[in-house]
Amino acid sequence: MNTQTYYGSRLQPTATPADRPTMKALALLTLITTAAFASAGAGARGEPRDQAKAQRVHRSSSERRRFQSWHPCPSTGRPAGACPGYTVDHVIALKRGGADVAENMQWQTVAEAKAKDRVE
Questions:
Q1: Residue 97 near residue 73, CB atoms below 8 Å
Q2: 54 occurs within a structural domain
Q3: Is residue 52 helix, strand or coil?
Q4: Structural domain of residue 26, as residue ranges?
Q5: For residue range 92-118, what is the model confidence (pLDDT) as tens digits?
């Protein structure tokens, strides 16, 4: 930037034709960087991406019954029905790509489930 122009009471540098390609490249770089950060991690209110775009994952009740028939309730020993104090948990979370199959399920105490939910 070789020339300077007075704007009001301030001396401001002005772009010469030789500087314009550099300024265009800088503007393009700024635009690309801004777009990359905007789409990269957070939602509109700062939530992690998977919470910002949360969609309810369909859970198969037949797979849950199959799991319970293979692994009876730890508190009652029954292969069907309610299991007080326990919940069925997916080893690999559905929102992380885990399958909704009996092989990806385990019994988990309610306290453990609450602790795990705080982390996930």
A1: no
A2: no
A3: helix
A4: 3-40
A5: 988 889 999 999 999 999 999 999 888
